[in-house]
Amino acid sequence: MKKIIIPIGALLISGLAHAQLSPTENYVYSKTYLDYNASNQPTKTAETVEYFDGLGRPKQIINIKASPLGRDVVTHIEYDGFGRQVKDFLPVPQAQSTNGAIVSNPLANATQTSIYGQEKIFAEKTLENSPLDRILEQKQVGNAWNTKPVKFDYGTNTATEVRKYVTTTTFMEGRTNSVLKVAANDANSASG
Question: pTM of the predicted model, to two decimals?
Fold first, then answer.
């Protein structure tokens, strides 16, 4: 009996030490095998946990032990009051590995000088106040780009920019003959 319980207990304990996922959160855990040894056993893996909020939107992505020091790297995802993602954060290496458990304050480690220092760690978008949520302005990551936004403009064609043509097609001598003219009510008809 002891011979059966010991391997099963070791298997359960190794499974608990493997990843400490948060059981009260919605998540997707993925494991990618990157390298195998001579006996076809995995030697290198990449593990990722993506946590979701109650509406099914991602709220945190954790790459388990992905930093050079073997610590978790967390990407924080944030939404504004209208449910739009207006800030895109850089991934932040954490002070320790939580083996995939959700991190309560993932941006706390970002201000260390060895990581990002005093730089702005997110790209931000300014959206128009309409249901279309079109981007009006976008600022990239870093303090230097804060004063150099990319601006977007949306417009429509006016009557002076678009010409209207009329085609008159007749059938003569066993073939079609088409004549193309500028429409009489076109504002540009005098110039064309």
Answer: 0.69
